[in-house]
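User: Quick sanity check before I run a bigger batch. Here is a single chain. Can you write out its predicted 3D structure?
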Amino acid sequence: MAVAIRTLTGAEISAALDDLAQLRIEVFRAFPYLYDGDVAYERDYIAEFAAAPHAALVAAFDGDRIVGAATASPMIAQKAEFQRPFVERRIDVDRLFYFGESVLLPEYRGQGIGHAFFDQREAAGRTAGAVQASFCAVVRAVDHPTRPADYQPLDAFWQKRGYRPIIGFTTDFEWKEVGGAEEVSHQMQYWIGPL
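Assistant: Done. Predicted structure follows.
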């Protein structure tokens, strides 16, 4: 499969919002997120994220089809709940870049696209004057009842990229899980690495 990876800007982002929203919903529906998403919410989330100064929205295309995407922007542009663990510990969020999500359809994994997503987001962070990048990942028990037998966490991939979990840096986000009736709280673990 020949996949092209490029950073979207302006009108390209607006034109891709529905496809990007649908992609996020599809990928995050699987373990470990188990997210039961809503297209309207996702469109608004992506548009708001991408509108931040120095934001990057990187997309992977198979022909005209978007098969993966990754977002990043300065931490100072994020909502208070994203910034909270850093602000509480007096870590300068002005020099920190936040990696939103990195979503890729399963059949495209293992081809280096994840590395390309990190490369382009890290470059955007350096251009914006950041010295570190951070992201958060959902925490799930090893014995979670919906964990697939062949599930491979991304910890080793992130560590090879130079990122480490920050002990004690967690936050909670709420979303509705597949099969659930209402939003529930999920613990998210922050990771950090140098740019």
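The radius of gyration is 16 Å.

User: Great, the batch can go ahead then.
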